[in-house]
Amino acid sequence: MVVVGVLSLQGDFLEHIQLLATMSNVKPKHVKMPRDLSDVDALIIPGGESTTIGRLMKIKGLDKAVVDFAREGRPVMGTCAGAILLAKSVVDRVVGKVNQPILELMDIAVVRNAFGRQRESFETNVLVEGLGSIKVVFIRAPAIIDAWGDAKIISYIDYPDIGRVGAVAVQRNMLAVVFHPEISGDTKLYEYLISMSRR
Ligand code: GLN
Q1: Which of 20, 86, 192, 194 could form a disulfide with 106, with the two C-beta atoms 3.0–4.6 Å apart?
Q2: CATH number of the domain residue 7 falls in
Q3: Any idea which residues carry the catalytic annotation?
């Protein structure tokens, strides 16, 4: 049995929990406090509002706890707002420089709200290196515009006006995913995350 924790402070953590519950040999677990991480094999930081999630993490001491968790080599996947929190560099498409707490764990640069606002949200298929095509939903998604060090972009999307940008990046035990895999229900990325915990 693999215990997959979902950071449950704000955002759509329930959708991740529900999808994980359909997978065999997976036990989903809400993570609300640092001590909840003790028996967790892999962690998901969900979509939501990255500013709010980052602030709540700081208040609860989960910022340091999640950084330690990742540095120990345990797998972490950040989806949408979660990907923003994992990045070392964050700007907003409209306001530019942002002032929000982030974890700075991955060598990637992201642009918040790169695809526009809520009405520009959309469903599409993306091709992820090694995993094939996945049906996903973009909701006020960020874009990955750079990766360095041993971080690597493994999925791209072409979008009018902004061109070709990164949608998924991997760096050792960490995955940044700009869309919402939990909504369309494709479990490939979850299986990939879990496979990292067995390495
Ligand atoms: N736009 C949100 C942010 O910047 C992310 C949206 C999402 O997670 N669906 O935090």
Answers
A1: 86
A2: 3.40.50.880
A3: 80, 180, 182
Tens of pLDDT, residue by residue over 138-196, are 999 999 999 999 999 999 999 988 999 999 999 999 999 999 999 988 999 999 999 99
Residue 74, ligand 1, Cβ within 6 A: no
User: What is the atom index within ligand 1 of the atom nearest the CA of 80?
Assistant: 8
CA distance 153 to 80: 15
- Whether ligand 1 lies within 6 angstroms of the CB of 171 is answered as no
Domain containing residue 22:
2-197
Does the predicted model carry a pTM greater than 0.90?
Answer: yes
Atom 5 (ligand 1) nearest CA: 81
The residue among 98, 64, 59 whose CA lies nearest residue 81 is 98
Is the CB–ligand 1 distance for residue 113 below 6 Å? yes
* 46-93 confidence digits (pLDDT tens): 999 999 999 999 999 999 999 999 999 999 999 999 999 999 999 999
Instruction: Say yes or no: CB of residue 84 within 6 Å of ligand 1.
Output: yes
Contacts with 182 (C-beta within 8 Å, 6 or more apart), sequence order = 12, 15, 16, 18, 19, 46, 47, 79
By three-state DSSP, how is residue 185 classified? Answer: coil
